[in-house]
Amino acid sequence: MLKQIQAYFQTTFRNNAERTAFIGLAGSVSLVMASIAVSQILLAPTLIAAAWIISYSRKLFSSMKWILLPLIIFCIWITVTALLAPNVMLALTFTKKFYLFLLVPLVPLIVRGPNRILWIYKAIIVVALLSSFVGIGQYLAKPDNTNLMDRITGFMGHWMTYAGLLMLALVSLVAYGLRAGWKWLFLWVPLASTMALAILLSQTRSVAMGAYLGVVIMLVAALFLERKRRFIVLLICIIIFPVILYFAVPASIQKRFRSGLDLNDPNTRPRLIIYDTSLRMIRDNPWFGVGPKNAGIEALKYRNEHEYPDWAYQHMHNNILQIASETGIPGLAIWLWLMIRLAWDALRTYRFAGSSAFPYGEEARWEATIISSAALGSWAALVIAGLLEYNFGDSEVLTLFLFVMSAPYAYSPVNVSKDFIPDS
Predict the structure, then answer these.
(1) What is the pTM of this model?
(2) How far, in Å, CA of 237 to CA of 240, rounded?
(3) Cα pseudo-dihedral 192, 128, 211, 223, rounded to 10
(4) Is the CB of residue 276 less than 8 Å from the CB of residue 319?
(5) pLDDT in tens, 270-310
C-alpha cells in the first residue's frame, strides 16, 4: 500500500522542482512546531520572571531541594570543566543551555491547577501529529529514501531532533490514551500508530528502540501500580504491534533496522570505533574530561584509524560516554544522580496519585497519573535511545524532556508535606 502511494506521489510530482515545492510548502508550517518544543511558550519569559519566581515561591523551591541540588551542582561542575577545557570559549557556549534547566522549578509553578498540564500535552500531541503527517509526506515525495544523509525531518531541521521529539510525544500520547478508557481506543491507537510510522520512516533506529521500550516499560509500571485488566491486553498488543508495523514498511526500512544487528555494517561499525575512541579519551582525562563541546575536536587525537572523516567524531553517540568524556567521571556521576532523581520523583508522584492520601480530587488524580506515567516512560525512552545517540545534547529534545519530567512536581507528595497545594 505504501509503495502504491509512493508511486502516486512520484507520478504527481513529475520533477524535482515540484517535489521541492511540496516539501517547502510543508516546511512553511514549521512555525507551528514551536508548540512541541515548549521553549517558545515557557522559556521566553524565563529570565524576566526568574527573580519573581525565586522570591514568590520559596516553599516550592524548598520542597524541590533534592532535585535542585544535583541540578545546581551539575551546572557548577560543567562550568568548572569548561574553564579547564583546551578551548575555553567553545566550552563556555554550552552554559547557554543552563536556562533550559529552569524548566524544572518553573513548570510546577506555572501549571498548578487541574487540566493546565494536560492542555499543554494536547497541544504537543496535536503538533506532533501534524509533523508526523508532514514527515510521511516527505518520505512519499522523495524518489530515493536510501540516502541516510537526506532523511525526513518534519517541521525540524534534523531527523534526529524530529524523531526524538516524536518519541517523547508518542509516549505522552500513549500515557494519555491508557487512561482515556476503551471508548477512545479507536481514536488514539491510530494516532499513535501514525507517530510510530513517522519514527520508522525517519530511519532512526535508536529512537525507534527508545520509543518502543519506553511505552512497554510504562505499561508494565501501570500493571503493577494501577492493576487494570485492560493494561494486560494492551501490553500483549504492543508486543505484537512492532511485528505488524515492520512488515508494513518498505523493504529498505526493514533492511535499515536489520543492519543494526550487523557489527560490520558501514553504518553500525563507525559507532563502535567512536565508542572505543571515547573510552581512551576518558581514560586520559578521568577527572575533568576535555570540556563541554570539546569532545568532537579532542577525539581526533585519540582515534586509532582514519577510515572515517573527522565530522564522524562530532559527538560520541552515547549520553554516558559523551558526558564522561567532556566532564569526567565526577561529571557523569552527578548527571546520573540528576537523572535517577528525576525518575525516582516521577515514580513517587505516580504512587502518590493512586493512594488514598492524594488530596486534590479525582480530576487532579487522573491528571497526576497521566503526567507521572508519561514522565517514567519518557525517561526510559530517552535513556534507552541515549545508549546509541547523544540526545541529552539536543536542545529541542532536552526542552521537551525537561518539561515532561518537571510536570509531576506540581503534584509531588513533598509539596503536600510543605503545605504547597495546587490552585483549584
Answers:
(1) 0.86
(2) 5
(3) -50
(4) no
(5) 889 999 999 999 999 999 999 999 999 999 999 988 888 88
**Using one digit for the tens of pLDDT, what is the confidence trace for 221-262?**
999 999 888 888 888 988 888 888 888 888 888 888 887 777
User: Position 226: which residue type?
Assistant: E
Q: How far is CA 184 from CA 128, 173, 297, 373, in A?
A: 19, 12, 51, 18
Place of cell 518498505: 250
Of 222, 209, 157, the residue nearest 375 (C-alpha): 222
CB atoms within 10 A of CB 387: 15
Residues 6 or more apart whose CB falls under 8 angstroms from that of 36 comprise 124, 127, 128, 131, 155, 165, 169, 400
Cβ pair 250, 2 in contact under 8 A? yes
pLDDT tens sequence across 122-144:
999 999 999 999 999 999 998 78
Q: Identify which of 228, 304, 274 has the alpha carbon closest to the alpha carbon of residue 389.
A: 274
Q: Is 361 exposed, middle or buried (0-12, 13-18, 19+ CB in 10 A)?
A: exposed
Q: What are the residues whose beta carbons fall under 8 Å from the beta carbon of 163, sequence distance 6 or more? A: 199, 202, 204, 207, 208
